[in-house]
Amino acid sequence: MKIQSVKDLEQIREEYSKRLYYPDAVKVNIGMASCGIAAGAKASFDRAIQEFPNGNGIDISQTGCIGFCEVEPLVEILGPGKPRVMYKNITEDKILETIQDYNENNFKKKWILGQMRDPRSFLEDDIENPLAGVTPLEEIPFLEEIPFYHKQVKIALRNCGYIDPDSIEEFIAKDGYFAFLKALHDMEPKEIIMQVKASGLRGRGGGGFPAGIKWETCARHDGDRYIICNADEGDPGAYMDRSILEGDPHSVLEGMLIAARGIGSNQGFLYVRNEYPLAVKRLVSAIKAAERYGLLGDNIAGSDFSFNVRISTGAGAFVCGESTALMTSLEGKVGRPRAKYVHTVEKGFRQNPSNLNNVETYANVPVILLKGADNYAKMGTTHSKGTKVFSLVGKIKNTGLVEVPMGISLKDIVFDIGGGVPRKKKFKAVQTGGPSGGCIPEQFLNLNVDFDELTKVGSMMGSGGMIVMDQDTCMVDVARYFLDFLKEESCGQCNPCREGILAMHDILTDICAGNGKEGDIELLEELGMMIQKFSLCGLGTSAPNPVLTTILYFREEYEAHIRYKKCSAGVCKPLFHYEIDEEACNGCTLCAKRCPEEAITGEKKAPHEMEQKKCIKCGICYDACKFDAILIK
Amino acid sequence: MSQAAQNKSVQFESVPSIDIDYMELDDIIADEFNNDKENLIMILQAIQRCYNFLPRPALAYLSTKLDVPYSQIYGVATFYSTFSLEPRGRNIISICLGTACHVRGGERVRERIEGALNLHDGETTEDQRFTLETVRCIGCCSLGPVVKINEDMHGHISYDQVNKILDQYE
Ligand SMILES: Cc1cc2nc3c(=O)[nH]c(=O)nc-3n(C[C@H](O)[C@H](O)[C@H](O)COP(=O)(O)O)c2cc1C
Ligand code: SF4
Ligand code: SF4
Ligand code: SF4
Ligand code: FES
Ligand code: FES
């Protein structure tokens, strides 16, 4: 069937809403994004399918992920007239029991994350609640009441975890492609761009450039215009783009279609990071489905508008996330950035006007058209509208993908949503912006997270990695870590970046090895300033940020490394050793059992001893001791 | 490239001689990717999937087929980190050194694996059993530190589990 009008979409929506909201049989949705699969979701899925092959009264289905990585595999079960229940940690061994329990109305509190109350996303707040009339379970919270979800608002992730990413019909059931058809049939291209401008949407890939202005400039230049999606996701602690592509690929295609209509383009490209095979697979299947329905291809929905999309995969070069490098790489060449005297919106891919946006940016676009730009702009701060997805990772209790309104405080994200630092350790900093960003210390926890506020404290939004660090994270080592990454990834065509990063990296390596000298900090600052000023592309100009912010906020740690040869976090091996605190040690023997070098000895229930010569500082005993009896000295 | 020159370059790298199926290469280059220069990176990826690395004779052939200078192909093959010009091992170990895994001790896991196999990043054991690679975030940060071996994900790895995990792979 080829979609011709909104009527056709409505027909599909009606049919498949039933499947999503009021199924005839019990429906089991298993979260199968990469991280869910790594946690065992695929095994659970296979087990369930084997037990209940189709038509057995139980419908086993896959979805993307709803972001709560910490308690994966996540399984949602719903049935006619029954509550919708989200179960956590449902590994292969638990899946059948979970389904059976649900069928028998036996709801094990311990296995349940929460119950669902539809509608859930920003987009659906005006849909009547399909669960009205169903008696909720007692003493089990609704999903949005639990701290991890309470402050989240889902726009970009609106469908992730709620629909089968391989089903275009389920996407349509959640209002998918309605915005595009509206743009195609009822709006002038100029109007589309005006709407996106009015929404205040800024690019989610790093720089935060206003999307509407980019579109407008691109549309002004003549040539075969291209719509390109940046799915290179190079920040080594961010995976929201992957999650969107794996959980809701059509939302990105719809955003690109709307951009193509607004800007006037017939060809789109998705540049996907090489390490994301599942994202590519789901995209391929999404593109085929959209073509089948006539939503991609020639003369879309009976109009004179044609648009095709192709997927291109990267090959492991961080710098290819940069716009000019990405476009050169798309041409099959070595992806080195070029100076932007002429912007890519004028001369980009194949020397033609090209509009590049990030995955999350495109995923936001349909919502803007559906809900109206003013509605969208109501959310967020003066200059940062809407929401942002963060990957909340590192030393945090609730690891996961969270989508929050711009302007929420850092503290809300880390402590309310994230549950704070595990194991009663002390919070030290949050790193945002990836290798271009910085470490934000405790004193700024009240900061209202948006593009400008993060820049003010020396960090940046970046693509949304948010890595929490605790007392056991050494800030000098973190700075060294990022430069180690950047020195590998610098494309090497300009001196300040290639040589400067290397020089800074060498100094930091020396400091971490105990060979730091007086004056090193000042030298780092000077080099950093030079690299920032004279590098060609964003990789170089932002490379010193992780070093400069850690010097700014954690100078005493640098000084301790250089002057006193001490690493109080217990990371830089030559600068600390472990000791057992005789008073605190109760002789539980755990450390002695686990030490791979047999460096710890002692009688049961008596304080243990550590033989320094044997110890290789692997940290196992430190992590294992439940009584804080192993000290870093 | 002449046969002799091919042999020479192969010898130079001390790469075991391998048979290149030029018909299959043609399928990749022409049918799958339209003889299109712009698809060079994806063609290389396809060749690497076939051979597990990029054999030089295949690159030379590619150069004539696409009419792209060999130097440019070589440039692309060395610029992008996923390409390997040397044969890789039967098992590929990818240690995650993303930021989240790093702060959770990924570096120590790396040290242990490097020590156990006496290998560095990008190298292959002599018996071709393992190739060691590092990756930056495979998106399973909640399981960090993570090591991926072939398609298997090993999460929450601690220093002392390394040997046991490696033993599972022949
Ligand atoms: C070194 C470097 C790496 C980048 N990596 C990415 C990336 O992985 N993903 C991304 O969306 N943007 C990345 N960017 C930003 C892009 O250059 C570009 O600004 C962005 O894709 C534009 O889309 P947006 O306006 O929707 O954010 C990177 C920039 C630099 C300088
Ligand atoms: S700043 Fe670095 S990455 Fe950017 S162009 Fe120069 S050398 Fe290449
Ligand atoms: S740090 Fe490692 S080697 Fe040293 S005592 Fe503890 S467990 Fe043993
Ligand atoms: S684990 Fe802690 S308490 Fe137990 S023996 Fe070791 S140091 Fe003592
Ligand atoms: S819940 Fe799937 S990305 Fe983690
Ligand atoms: S940092 Fe290792 S999986 Fe994300």
Low-pLDDT parts of chain A are none
Q: What would you say the CATH architecture of the largest domain in chain A is?
A: 3-Layer(aba) Sandwich
Distance between the termini of chain A: 71 Å
CATH superfamily of the largest domain in chain A: NADH-ubiquinone oxidoreductase 51kDa subunit
User: What would the average pLDDT of chain B be, to the nearest integer?
Assistant: 87
Largest sheet features of chain A:
5 strands, mixed
Count the E strands of chain A: 18
Structure description:
The complex is a heterodimer of chains A (633) and B (170). With 633 residues, chain A is an alpha/beta fold. Chain A is 39% helix and 14% strand. In chain A, the strands form 5 sheets. Chain A has a 5-stranded mixed sheet with strand order 2-1-3-4-5, with helices on one face. In chain A, a hairpin with a 5-residue loop joins strand 12 and strand 13 (438-441). Chain A is globular, with a radius of gyration of 26 Å. Chain B starts with a helix and ends with a helix. Chain B folds into 2 domains: 3-79, no CATH class; 91-167, Glutaredoxin. The model of chain B is unreliable at 1-14 (pLDDT under 50). With 170 residues, chain B is of the alpha+beta class. At the A-B interface, helix 2, strand 10, strand 14 and helix 18 of A face helix 3, helix 5 and helix 6 of B. One FE2/S2 (inorganic) cluster binds at residues 33, 35-36, 65, 67-69, 72, 243, 400-401 of chain A.
